[in-house]
Amino acid sequence: MKKGILLLAILFVFSCKNETKSNGKLNVVTSTTMITDLVKNIGGDYINVEGLMGSGVDPHLYKASEGDVTKLVNADVIFYNGLHLEGKLVEIFEKMDSDKETIALADEINKKQLIVSEYFASNYDPHVWFDINFFKQFVEKVTIVLSEKDPINAEKYRENEKRYLADLNKLDEDVQGVVDVLPKEKRILVTAHDAFNYFGKAYDFEVVGLQGLSTATEAGVQDVQKLAAFIIDKKIKAIFIESSVPKRTIEALQAAVKSKGHDVVIGGTLYSDALGNAGTAEGTYVGMYRYNIKTIVSALQ
Ligand SMILES: [Zn+2]
């Protein structure tokens, strides 16, 4: 019912849309904080960027507000992750497709390289940004689109792209350096939901999520008991909370391990589906990745 009203609202705003562009700059709307940070890195001061989701927001459950609809309607370009990460926004994005440039960045990745998953309507795990090479493909696509839409500043976008890709290459190298310190048998990452499969694939970690790929499904008692037995069997020292998922599931897992006479610590909070607060190091993709890997490796060592 609510969804119907929202769609009607969109159609209404479309019909009375005027073409005013604030300060002559391209209006870009983004979904997750990772994509907002990326687009700001490429667009700099040459564009207006409005991110829909803030720090700590879970994109699987996020619903558009009335304010979001206004931002979307006024946008020249919309960038989102896709692969049904933004499960409740997809319908709105798809409605907009014919009217404006609406781009699912994950569509840039060759499907053969994606991790197959039956949890999502897309049939693929949507947490692709945790593979830095995939995130670099996002960067390339954003640069192309901004340059096409705003050719006057195209040279600036390409300069920013070059600098940002160099930052991401350095990040990849540094992450690998930190991971190399951790022996192979200790590379097991247990978190609240399965956000880290691409990270695991890239850096040779076994990844186990308590809630499956989406936070829309709750973990059952059986899952908790099974995972507790796994933690004891593999002598895993630490498990991790995620900033955008309530911590009670991981605390229940810790309690289950303790009830069997063993101990596992909570190794810290990882940023999974959202970055940290704006203005902090973890509020950027690069800072988030550095923080996560340091937290993971120091707790598992
Ligand atoms: Zn997720």
UniProtKB/TrEMBL annotation:
Principal location: other
InterPro entries: AdhesinB, Bact_metal-bind_prot9, Lipoprotein_PsaA-like, ZnuA-like
SUPFAM superfamilies in the record: Helical backbone' metal receptor
Keyword Transport belongs to the record: yes
Keywords: Metal-binding, Signal, Transport
Pfam family, one: ZnuA
Magnesium found in the keyword field: no
Localization (cell): Cell envelope
Family in the record: Belongs to the bacterial solute-binding protein 9 family.
Protein name from the UniProt record: Zinc ABC transporter substrate-binding protein
